[in-house]
Specification:
- Chains A, B: This is Dipeptidase.
- Chains A, B: Pfam families: M20_dimer, Peptidase_M20.
- Chains A, B: One of its GO terms (molecular function) is metal ion binding.
- The structure is a homodimer.
- The first copy, chain A, folds into 2 domains: about 1-195 and about 365-455, Aminopeptidase; about 195-250 and about 300-365, Alpha-Beta Plaits (2-Layer Sandwich).
- The mean pLDDT of chain A is about 95.
- Chain A is elongated and about 85 Å long.
- In chain A, strands 1, 2, 3, 6, 7, 9, 16, 17 and 18 form a 9-stranded mixed β-sheet that branches.
- With about 450 residues, chain A is α/β, with parallel strands linked by helices.
- In chain A, helix 4 packs across helix 14 and helix 5 runs parallel beside helix 13 (about 400-410).
- Helix content of chain A is about 30%, strand content about 25%.
- Chain A is built from 14 helices and 20 strands.
- In chain A, a hairpin with a 6-residue loop joins strand 1 and strand 2 (about 65-70).
- Chain A has helices at about 1-10, 15-25, 35-50, 120-140, 160-165, 170, 225-235, 255-265, 270-275, 290-295, 335-350, 375-385, 400-410, 435-455, and strands at about 55-60, 65-70, 80-85, 105-110, 110-115, 145-150, 175-180, 180-185, 190-195, 195-205, 210-215, 300-310, 315-320, 320-330, 355-365, 370, 395, 415-420, 420, 435.
- The interface between A and B is large, with 79 and 78 residues.
């Protein structure tokens, strides 16, 4: 470890060079006009992977933006690690309130500011720099390494399934390592052992074939599609915030005693969080703590609703239709497909009189879970702990990383999510940033982790 | 009557001339660019009123488009009739499916086609032509007559209250006669003895100060404003279509036996009505017939709703706010102001946790009612019946004519609503039309009515 520390110290002045060059390429996957930059960014990373000593560097194509693959698999009888990251970023406009240009990174007070500084270029380069460092010092790696760096994370990993299906053997590994999450403490990373999945649908309610006058001759005898939708939604979640669709909670995984304990040990300033979003009180299922509601319990939210007249003033109509967008965050042990059929059944049973109802499903991502006692995870915890001064928390996440669950399920491998972000990193927001100190420590901690994994012996496959 | 009949027969070829000229002026009050035409139309009618022998012809100004006033008050000891009508029309575009230009009236198969042919230029000219006919034959009128013809009916009679307040004495009369409604039968008019009023409000629900990610770190602990709105709306009307706001139905006037009888005698083809609007079943309060639901029972309808993301695809947010437009059709004996406070109280009591709720009231029109046994009304019924072959129905209306209630209440006079329209007149729709035969019969019937009213003796005021 001392050798690594002194290597990092010696190279301190150039450590961020590639990250900064990479941030300068506005690889925004959601914006069509950024197509050239997307490929420029992928090319940049591809070249860097070759340069640091990785092999078989190539694009894997699933029909969308390519994923970059690379490997180094000469550590005989050692575990194989698949590292996942993404090179696409969220859109960013200087005008939105950035102090410096989002695509001209600037270092202020030991923080790198720029779009992608944390999500995910910053966290990706922590991984790449760790590999580079190990190569530089040992001329080899302590474990077998495979990388998959996709370009569609910010648009929902649209073609990731195709890529995985086409390259199952190439991507197979003993564990997946991902740095694309965050921690609750600014100064230390966290390890995330569970993520919620997501399912979403659009519900349309059709009443009469046109907007009707709300007075004569239909005003009082026709079901109002907006009201029909209100009653249908009301049947799905009650006033206390509890989802009332029969069977919805059936498969929700209960917390183990260990999980409960580690969850209770985490303290959050609810007052500060309330202040941040300007609400006077939080709301949710009774009997569950703040973090249980966000991490352990599924949700059902209306993301958007529309129907009838929305202009200025009054327009006394019974509108012809109404529609709503709904997403559910689903939790470990719940299955998207099962819930879709449970919800569909509930809707069919509760169609209000006098209207037609249609359900259209959007994409579905299953939740992710790894037992917090998993040896690969505990090894990561120890490796990080010995580098960072603060204890590293074991947490869950309320959000979804589609690719994690896809890789985890399709390739049947445990995943270790090491998150170096924090809410003040302003991921997806203005002035996204990353601590230079954390960047350096992360490289050290990841080297430490891979060295520790390298001390494991794996039976060679016949 | 024979004298009138032969006068109308003699003048048959010129009877529609003024109506047709008037329809040619596109007096659309909702469209700003029609301002000149609005005044051109008012001038046209003003000139015509003078020409037929009415006196004191002038504009009454309330700050918007002027109302036209005229009178003839030389029938000593006879009742004074205030006739209301309007010269503004709904917008109309040839491209919408008009067979002939909406503002170049055409007579096809004995029907006049053009915007305003029924609403209200056609029905207004029935009244004016009746006055002209009586003048021509008798050189005087059998009753005292006052007219008020406004230009803002189609935009909610915005300045009618001001006009009435400023000219109370001038407008005072023994009864109000209005031809701006319709009948259920094509071949005969109907007399409408009750109209619903309307109250409307906008309800806004504010949650967090911005759209939140529905995953971490708020996804499960924040009240969703759309769902809060759903629960609030659900508390206002139940799944059976019954308004569940305490006290809402308290003042609803019950039907008398006579009313029940006349209502039950009216037959409607519900199948045809369902087909027209493309619904498989009607919906509404159990225990009430179709016409009771539309005429006698109040309603609460959501006219429009919006909140959150409404674009393509999924956007997994908890939106910051949601809003809804609501109108209630209110029925005789209910008071708009009372209901506003009842609704406001209910909302205040039911504000969901974790959100702010705001209510903004729009305009309010009270319902109108005259006892169907009222002598002025029965006289009208007899006068119409003797001219039209079919029995004239006593009906109510589900809609609202703001000015009727304003004049009725402010000037404390009974109102007789004689409706010559029919659903096939296509009022507010394409190819609006009026039967030429009905136009002629209407003039005859109205002359008959005014002659019959003229047989009444009224004590001269001291």
């Amino acid at each position: 470890m001392e050798q690594i520390k002194s290597f990092l110290l010696k190279n301190k002045s150039t450590l961020l060079d590639e990250l900064i060059e990479c941030i300068q390429i506005p690889s925004i996957s959601t914006v069509r006009s950024s197509k050239k930059d997307m490929y420029r960014c992928a090319d940049y990373i591809k070249a860097y992977l070759s340069q640091i000593g990785l092999e078989n560097v190539q694009y894997l194509d699933g029909g969308g933006y390519p994923a970059i693959y690379a490997d180094w698999i000469h550590a005989k009888n050692k575990p194989t690690v698949l590292i996942y990251g993404h090179y696409d970023v969220q859109p960013a406009e200087s005008l939105d309130g950035w102090i410096s240009d989002p695509f001209l990174p600037e270092i202020r007070d030991d923080y790198v500011y720029g779009r992608g500084a944390t999500d995910n270029k910053g966290q990706l380069f922590m991984q790449l720099k760790a590999i580079e460092t190990l190569f530089q010092i040992h001329e080899c790696l302590p474990v077998n390494v495979k990388l998959i760096i996709e370009g569609e994370e910010e648009i929902g990993s649209l073609t990731m399934t195709e890529i995985i299906e086409k390259h199952k053997d190439r991507l197979s590994a003993d564990l997946l390592v991902v740095s694309d999450t965050g921690s609750l403490q600014k100064d230390a990373p966290a390890i995330c052992y569970g993520l919620r999945g997501i399912i979403g649908f659009e519900l349309s309610v059709q009443g009469p074939n046109r907007d009707l006058h709300s007075g004569s001759i239909y005003g009082g005898v026709v079901q109002n599609p907006i009201y029909a939708l209100v009653h249908l939604l009301n049947s799905m979640k009650n006033e206390l915030g509890v989802i009332s669709i029969p069977g919805f909670y059936d498969d929700v995984q209960l917390l183990t005693d260990l999980e409960k304990e580690s969850l209770n040990a985490i303290s959050l300033s609810e007052e500060k969080l309330k202040e941040d979003i300007g609400v006077k009180q939080f709301f949710g299922e009774e009997g569950y703590s703040f973090l249980e509601r966000v991490w352990v319990r599924p949700t059902l939210e209306v993301n958007g609703i529309e129907g009838g007249y929305q202009g200025e003033g009054m327009k006394s109509i019974i509108p012809e239709k109404a529609k709503v967008k709904v997403t559910c965050r689903i939790v470990p042990n719940q299955k998207g497909e099962v819930l879709q059929s449970i919800i569909e059944k509930h809707i069919t049973k509760n169609i209000p009189a006098g209207v037609k109802v249609e359900v259209e499903w959007n994409k579905c991502s299953n939740p992710f879970y790894i037992q917090p006692e998993h040896p690969y995870l505990l090894k990561a915890l120890n490796s990080l702990q010995s580098v960072f001064d603060k204890p590293v928390q074991l947490i869950r996440g309320g959000g979804t990383i589609a690719a994690v669950e896809m890789l985890n399920q399709s390739l049947n491998m445990p995943a270790v999510l090491i998150g170096f972000g924090h809410s003040s990193s302003n991921v997806h927001s203005v002035n996204e940033n990353m601590s230079v100190e954390k960047f350096e420590k992360a490289i050290l901690a990841l080297c430490n982790y891979y060295l520790s994994l390298g001390s494991d012996h794996v039976e060679e496959e016949s």
